[in-house]
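cron nightly-structures :: item 1 of 1
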Amino acid sequence: VNSMNSEGDTALCLASKSNYAEITEFLIKNKADVNDGDPLYKALVQGSQDTCIILLQNKFTDIEKQFKDKGETLLQTASLKGLERLVSCFLDKKRLSKSVNINESLFS
């Protein structure tokens, strides 16, 4: 499931950037690595909002990466592309992540 083609894309990257939502969900359910090959970034650059949302719903998706080519975060890229729905999803995930971290430190 996590093999890469000659261009460094996994099956999840290809499905995500092509906005194949059902295939994206199938691959995630079958243990595709949601960070391997940066499927969220590739989907975001293509404007594949449905698959971005599916990837954002996965608790293992890393949204804090900064990408070398432009030095932007995923949130900045979504904002610059005018993808308001995704900007909201990124902010919600950031809020949730912070509240989980606070709760973990309080109850550890």
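cron nightly-structures :: done
Residues 100-108 have pLDDT under 50 and may be disordered.
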